[in-house]
Amino acid sequence: MLYDPTEHRIRSFVTRAGRLSTGQARALEEFGPQFLIEYRKEMFDFHAPFGRQAPLVLEIGFGMGGTTAHIAQAMPDTDFVGVEVHTPGVGSLLKMIGEQDIKNLRVIQHDAVEVLNNMIADGSLAGVHIFFPDPWHKARHNKRRLIQPPFVKLLCQKLSPGGYIHCATDWEDYAVQMLEVLGAEPLLQNTAEGYAEKPSYRPLTKFENRGLKLGHGVWDLVFTKR
Length: 226
Fold this sequence. Notes:
Helices cover about 35% and strands about 20% of the residues. By secondary structure, it is α/β, with parallel strands linked by helices. The chain is globular, with a radius of gyration of 17 Å. It starts with a strand and ends with a strand. This is tRNA (guanine-N(7)-)-methyltransferase.
């Protein structure tokens, strides 16, 4: 997470320039009004956009959205909200939602920390997915990593009892940090002895599969709220 001196707050992302494709721009215009949830500084009823009462899972930083769309389609009885700041990724996921008619997935384009603090009620989430967050691999930048004790405490506050946090990373030292931070939170319990087996709902990305073939590691961590 980053400290923003202009607003005196912690940020969960770094803004990067990204080229918006024609398809992504069209998806923002065509599907945005239906599937984008506007950020607001007030609690929001996340069941309303789906028209039903179902378990709600939040994904933080979904990138280009392929994994998010896959999981939502594989788990039709669960509703998903993906939070991402980068416009090309938002456009990419909206394109998939619209073209593949994914009914149980919505998108918020905003900082996840503010969304958690201002829009999501305590005890309302069935799960949180954080897949391959920015590793900030230089030692002097490690403090900018998302998985830090205050952020994990905030996630626990928003989880219902029995709710879970699922993180994945391909940076071993970040995996070690994740295990230490999640393991030190008294409200959480590890579902495994150390790192977890990859849950079946999380698909292998092309990048991840290529890395595994080259001998690179990927670490999944799944903790539940006591």
